[in-house]
Amino acid sequence: MRPAVQATSATRAAVALALALAAVGCGGGGGSGGADGIVSSSWGDPQNPLEPANTNEVQGGKVLDLIFRGLKRYDPKTGEAQDMLAEKIDTTDSTTFAITVKDGWTFSNGEPVTAQSFVDAWNYGAHLRNNQRNAYFFGYIQGYDQVHPESGEPTAGTLSGLKVTGPRTFTVTLSQKFSTWPETLGYAAFAPLPKSFFTDHDAWLAKPVGNGPYAVDSYAKGSRMSLRRWDAYPGDDKARNGGVDLVVYTDSNTAYTDLTAGNLDLVDDIPASQLKHVRADLGDRYINTPAGIIQTLAFPYYDPAWNKPGQEKVRQGLSMAINRQQITDKIFMKTRTPARDWTSPVLGPDGGYDDALCGTYCTYDPRHAKRLIAEGGGIPGGRLTITYNSDSGSHKEWVDAVCHSINNALGNDRACTSSPVGTFADYRNQISQSKLVGPFRAGWQMDYPLIQNFLQPLYYTNASSNDGKWTNEKFDRLVDQANAETDPAKAIDTFKQAETVVRDQMAAIPLWYQNGSAGYSDRISNVQLNQFSVPVYNEIKVSG
Length: 544
Known about the structure:
It contains 17 helices and 19 strands. By secondary structure, it is of the alpha+beta class.
């Protein structure tokens, strides 16, 4: 989801963990089983307030997926963007879209969901004064530069490209052709909002109100959120359980221990240290499935030392010096797959995934790697320092392994070293302030299953998640052409051409595709992860 890294760990005080554990108690979710049973699941405190346009990380995204439904929803198994509240979305030019909202939908407080519910929410999300982290998702809509200028004050209060034409109809005019724009509308930033969001904002933040299959019952920040089935929910994906208790853990190993002890029903992030024995612990209650997540090494192109002509050879050589297969086999126990391009296998070949695109540059070849690095002028300063956040359970292991692989290829045990940053928040602050002086860990979890989402936010000039500040005119031009293409197949082909520019310049080193992993208790069943590696909570059944 989301600018930069899509998953994060909560970093609260020990007392928060104690409260969380006390809240869970014994016996998983507790209470009755069957249709009214409650599922208890591990969680990390959201980084930001739970506004749809302000949530750009996995933990907050879990809640939004429980309490909101938008115009589109991504099929949990295929990732296909399917109509949810959209009765129809019509266009004749891939620029202006006429949207009709289905009748009969309400928010959990009884307020009808109308065209105005969407337009008001999108105007709020886009406007500079509201400081929403996902504002850039509205950047294609006409008038965005007036409500969210790159510098200075806004000159308009609303997006000129949004027009309400009836109680259930509105039009959206984009500033450029974007043939697949409707497929982005399953992302949470495009959710509708009730009037109470605007009239009593603080109260809404304390207990968010949405239009999804669950409603928030209580929320104690740093401890837990309790959600309960909304029985009047009009959608066809009604909850098959009585609710979900999301319990904050500051250590994924503690959550795993509680799961195996019967004190927790679901953990959706199995720590690397537990992978060796997870099958023995859980048997077929362990899930390991492909997800739309890729891990890379990004580079600080704002540092002239890393942005010299010919240095693409250094980056290509470093990529070839990494033994991806060995690292994914030994450290991640096959829960990662060596990357062969810059997207994800979940897109499939028709969606733009190409397992041959990176080619030799993603193939371990230490002799060729050493030669390329020398031809490119060598590592800047003579030493590579990889920065990562150390509050996750697995980053240190794989970063050390990457450095070990590079050092072996170069015949120099001091060529690569690591630099841990204590918390995810501090790490992101250093990245956003362009303070890093060498490669850094980067991860991307797709916002929606389009090749565009793996390329434009990360590599387009000045894009929201282009943390390394890479820029390339040819890449930008091809992305613009792809977005303007009305034939989806031709658009994908053009995006793939843009991706070859990323490859030839090795804008970032693709490492591996990350699987979604989860474990669950014998108290629940019908557990699955969607293509974003998030549990499909509404489908879970409770047996006792």
